[in-house]
Design goal:
- The protein is mainly α and 143 residues long.
- The protein has helices at 33-58, 62-88, 94-105, 114-142.
- Helix 2 (62-88) packs antiparallel against helix 3 (94-105) and helix 3 runs antiparallel to helix 4 (114-142).
- Residues 1-38 are annotated as: Disordered.
- InterPro entries: Flagellar_assmbl_FliX_class2.
- It holds the Pfam family FliX.
Length: 143
Amino acid sequence: MKVTGTTGPSAPTGGKPARASAGFSLGQTGATAAPSAASASAATSGVNDVSALMALQGIEGPLEKRRRAVRRGAGLLDRLDEMKMALLSGEPDEAVLQQLYRTLREDRPDDGDAGLNDLLDQIDLRASVELAKAEMRRRSSES
């Protein structure tokens, strides 16, 4: 079937004759009613598609939880490494401590992997110990 313009589809050429469907018919209404109905339904389906996508984005699967947990752990290790370099250079950096504190306070997703959770617990503990040591150094330097 070939659409040749605004008049509708052209008659099929060759082969089998077209069969009429018993449950479907196009009413012979005015030419202006069809485009407005089509655009109204297209607008509605566009809104439904967007809301479905938004709903899917809110769902977090186990793989995404694991990625977030690993990313958080790697971030803590990076902050600990920055802190180590600052201490070795003799210049403790307050910004590094603040970043370590913020990263440690981030919500940690639980992906159900016991081995990963144990490792992340150890990283969290090490970061907490380093923050406590930094606080003790700060207090001793103030007095």
